User: Fold these one by one.
Assistant:
Number 1:
Amino acid sequence: MNISFCCTDTKAQPWLEGLRAALPGATVEPWSEGAAPADYAVVWTPPQAFFDEQTRLKGVFNIGAGVDALMKLRLPAGVPVVRLDDAGMSVQMAEYVSHAVIRHFREFDGYDADVAQGQWSYRKPRMRTDYPIGVMGLGVLGERVSQTLAQFDFPVLGWSRSPKAIDGVQCFSGDDGFKEFLAATRILVCLLPLTPDTENIMRHDTLSRLLPGAYVINVARGRHLVDDDLLALLDNGHVAGAMLDVFRTEPLPAAHPFWAHPKITVTPHTSARTLREESIAQIAGKIRALQDGAALASIAGVVDLKQGY
Ligand code: NAP
Ligand code: GLV
């Protein structure tokens, strides 16, 4: 069995060694143009040339949860694309979003500023019932995040394409549920995949429907958010602030207004990192299962290519 590794912005050697150790007997090589045909591919944002050349693949494994970069390419027909299914990401995402929510709700930035001035000051405690949190996307990451936030006794709402039932979370679905979901949300968390249906979903008219003094947490993809619309709503006060981990262009260009905006906290696409050991174990397990004839339906994380996630 041959495995081709084609991951941009990724240190290849530890992945190659890890995959070789997890799949003894397999040949695991980094891809370069003209390389021999492989049975399986392990990829992250590969070039089109990779798929144009690798015509005998039996499966493509993405070393991230989001497959939007793959969906832009011409993929080989009939070959399953499998994304990471959690692999240690959901707990990281729950940490990040809880941090963002609590930092805003408890006004820790304000306390930091006061302390920097040598001021021992108190702020009036806020009521968590005034801060309903709406999580867009109730998949592997969104479900864990919404359940974690419910543990802090915040009112939590969730929105997904298909109807869901999650303990402690008021669930909405589809276009019909979207306006009701937004109108009841003050802190908005985006954990949607980037697809034609979700691109620019956080724009002027949708963000304007949030409760006044809204707070926006984007941990999905930069293209979910219309940057200028967020800036306008921060200017007019409808949105009180934002914590953003993902951007339309990454790294965030030096001149982008988000860097220095006093109401925006920027992090460098780090909310849920790919954990190498967990990911290798997961991918190797799935390759073994496919080799042993497992049904595709039994493999978690197979992408629905029609839906784009
Ligand atoms: P997932 O399990 O596929 O969940 C996606 C959720 O979004 C599902 O609940 C799905 O609804 C919902 N959804 C999709 N299209 C929708 C639409 N048009 N309207 C309403 N809901 C819709 O994905 P995941 O593993 O949770 O990951 C989510 C995204 O997080 C990834 O695609 C990636 O872009 C991003 N991410 C970011 C980082 C980071 O470090 N910043 C790390 C990992 C992932 P159904 O349940 O009805 O299908
Ligand atoms: C990271 O953004 C991922 O999609 O895994």
Note: Residues 64-66, 274 surround glyoxylic acid (ligand 2) (CB under 6 Å).
Number 2:
Amino acid sequence: MSMQRILFTFVLGLVVLGAGLVGRAGAKEKAADAEKKRPNIIYIMSDDHAAHALSCYGSKINKTPNLDRLANEGMRFDRCFCTNSLCGPCRAVVLTGKYNHLNGFIDNRASSRFDASQPHVAKMLQKAGYQTAVVGKWHLRCEPTGFDYWNVLPGQGQYYDPVMIEMGKKSKRKGYVTDLITDSALDFIKNRRDPSKPFFLMYHHKAPHRRWEPGPKHLTMYDDQDIPEPPTFNDDYKGRGTAAHSTEMTIEKHLTPNDLKVKPPKDLKGQALKKWKYQRYIKDYLRCVASVDDNVGRLLDYLDKSGLADNTVVFYTSDQGFFLGDHSWFDKRFMYEESLRMPLMVRWPGHVKPGSVSKDMVLNLDLAETFLDLAGVDVPKDMQGRSYKPILEGHAPDDWRKSMYYRYYEFPAVHMVHKQYGVRTDRYKLIYFNELEEWELFDLEKDPHELNSVYDDPAYADVVKELKAELARLKKLYKDDDSVTGPVWKKGDPIRRGNKKKRTVKNAKK
Ligand code: CA
């Protein structure tokens, strides 16, 4: 081989090697680019925040300027419903994308535990290369699984100086819970994040859950004003069955001095006492909401400042709705609108049209599927909801759901709301109180406050027939064969109050 030829081969070799290196580096960059394009997902969930206590939903009693940003800069969903209006069960549905009779967490009784060994969305996103984290309220009576970082409250948690469990280690924190949970969310984003990966953060507030303890900044907010009462404040439950008449969640009788923080003035009786209690209750509730609003504002500001906002999808919702004096109640559990409805706003710059509103019916059941879809991960076939990413992008599928299935199990228990299941369509709602064997039907167009069941009205006979068929179809679709019921209560069984032991139904079985 001549010297020239050797030199030529050497140079050619260098060129090929160099091209190979450049090519490899290019592929790596491409992969990094693709990784950058997978959006971060921040799922913000408060606890018991009813849509009618958000100004973007037309609240008549408060303002939520920071939360409203998500509606103004993203999409507001006007028909978002929960499948079981209770804290723990809702969370189990969010994680698994399955109804409670399948994920096993049907109610909040002490014996209920979430089986965290089952597949759920955080595990799936983690496996797909997302860095995953959960901070704040967890409430599933087990340690979180599928999260690279977690820092959660034990059980319901405390408002002031709460204990938090960080990666298995318990410690008492100084401060107000809504601020502390936000500090933790920001700490994850700022300091614990792996910038080479997209992240999935579940940022769960305890507020505004009962016992509604306001933060130090909002203790005197609303002091100088009366909060308007809702139109159904003096509901007498005429036109509805046993369940509405027999709950233990009325403003008048069931708000305790512990809830109200002071004893009511002795001279107050009847309606005057009820009005006084409502003001105490609703002001503390709204003060707690104000703190959530401030803190979500802090998080959104950081996303803006850091440049993360552009490629981060932000969800805001609550684990279900709440009665804000509506029907004379606090709490939730019923399939009635105030309790069934969840607020939901989603911001995704460049994909969701700012200020858009969706009237499509979406559920907490759809969240896991939507997160997976956003991350480009295939949705497992046994998940029961559906991704609404197309709705976010302005292309609602023609075959989107036109009805939803609801089921509540926790009875007998605190607040004594009877077991029920039912179907809601755009216009109607059929509820079956299965242990009472009573039905209610509401025409939401004519009776938006659900004051008069028209179940026995012959004019609605066809509607009843259709809805019963739809209910049966949904039960079959979601594989609910009534084998999961919770403790059985039979008509005529005594329910006693006071002594907890006595209160248990005699023949209750698990
Ligand atoms: Ca809740």
Note: The domain at 31-401 is CATH 3.40.720.10 (Alkaline Phosphatase, subunit A).
Number 3:
Amino acid sequence: MTLPQCDNPPTPQEAAGLRERYRVERERRVRPEGPGQYRSTTAEFGYFAADPYAHGGTGREPLHDEVDVAIVGGGFGGILAGAHLRRQGVARVRVIEKGGDFGGTWYWNRYPGVHCDIESHVYLPMLDETGYVPRWKYAPGEEIRRHAVRIAEQFDLYEDALFSTSVTSLTWDEDTEKWQVTTDRADAFHATHVIIATGTLTEPKLPGIPGIEEYRGHTFHTSRWDYGYTAGGPDGGLTGLAGKRVGVVGTGATGVQVVPKLAEDAGHLYVFQRTPSSVDVRGQRRMTPQDVGADRPGWAAERRENFLRIVSGEEAGQDLVTDRWTASAALLEKLLPSFRRAGEPDFEAAYEAADHAAMNRIRERVVREVADPATAAALQPWYRYACKRPTFSDTYLAAFNRDNVTLVDTADTHGIERMTERGVVVGGVEYELDCLVFATGFSVGVSGVTSGKLPVTGRQGVQLLHAWAERGPRTLHGFTSNGFPNLVRMGSLQNASSVNFTHILDEQALHAAALIAAALAKDALVEPTPEAEDAWIDVCSQGAPDHEWFHAECTPGYYNGEGRGRPNGPTAYSHGAVAFHELLRHWRENDLGEILRERRTCGG
Ligand code: NDP
């Protein structure tokens, strides 16, 4: 691995000045409530969480049958798990999905401008298997959603799927040695195996702004876009907003995509910003199959692995994707735990210099693109590159040059002060609005079992969260836990991740399917021993002190528990996703048998 490089390193005085500026800006933004400042849409504002896209299909009879595998969640995690199970020859696979169709994130997020800012040829999974070649470097959300449907169709996942259905409990039945699955549609069926693939950023959150209930204008969250009100679609044409005063709260990855589209059609758009995003060059363009060498078998897997190696800081030879993610690869290391660099002073100094140079370039871009100096100053981000999720847009900054767009900076008041029935108050000024859009993101890590919303009861009636209450989560490789046989979790716990999360999910799905197929073939149970869990926790406990230190000093956001530092400990595997995938492959080839246990009952 090479040290991060930069052409234009700041002088020691400039570096000291930047450190101090970052500290001051951080202090301006930290709120004492931390994550408690947010409110849950599902718990408190049900109408914000309702499904605007579901079309019928909810009047079916409850099911009381039995399947080989129940998969909770029909986003890419669940779809890929289903696809890999089919490839392993598993017959009865049932996906249970809250939304009205497959797609997960891409089912819910259909806001104007929605795209994926990871290159489509590495983000869309199973391109080799489906033969599909994306047309744009960065795919529109609808193309991604359709690809999710394509995979589900190709692997025959519709036949047994349950849509507009939420799993309400999972209970291990000792007599049958199967899982009893209940849902909010009165289903109660058995599954030999269960895969939990409920995602990590699924529950829309709202800021706890005083008076939020009082607002009488039209309002919705970006993940439940109300095209009935705005008209148009993800490509724009929001004619319903003509002549209207529209507000948008939030300038994260979603806000950066939405603002240019709202600006095109709103009578006047007020953008309420608390922390500016770093907005780098996007470079959207048409791509042909020749551009990616799509005539070669395995081209997509090779490209995806190349991207993973680069953004994980591994040697990759050439850079096939060549975008701002790969260009900033050395800086991205801090997003993910890595103890490889801890305590290396040369690395820290080179890293900081490259970080300062990269952020200077991003700040200079704002000044070049935004005409009004005060607006440009407010749009400049003052924190280190990996403190917040980087964003990419070639239209966001320019939107602030329009006469009908006003940036309202709320940093001095730690966000919007309060809301009234007419609009939003910042700095004592009331902004009257016909419509207010919340681009305020999602509760992190509360979906699925970890919130307790979906109770999982294992052997001897022990609930998963109770089993983990004292010593924290205990797993083997993040997938399986003692006391909870035939239950496989996907997601980000005690494993390794990457910015290209669909790649991570694909590897997890491959692993989950291999475990289940081996168990079904031998009529065995999948359950790690406590000793195997202990050994894995030890591996994960070799933490990432540089990463922890880095995030503790960052501006608040969901990466660091809103400014409280980021729990490290045994939450992740520290050697990165490339090594983790290799570890899993080796384990499957050599040690998989160790996790299989004899059943007491006859499987059938
Ligand atoms: P984020 O959580 O990233 O952003 C929420 C925004 O709301 C922030 O700008 C936040 O400000 C602001 N906010 C919260 N509370 C207040 C308040 N009281 N007053 C004013 N502003 C407030 O959500 P996003 O939906 O933008 O993104 C979530 C994640 O989804 C991304 O990080 C990314 O992982 C994913 N995503 C990916 C995309 C892709 O292309 N791959 C596209 C879009 C999203 P502050 O920063 O100060 O907290």
Note: Residues 10 and 360 are 9 Å apart (CA to CA).
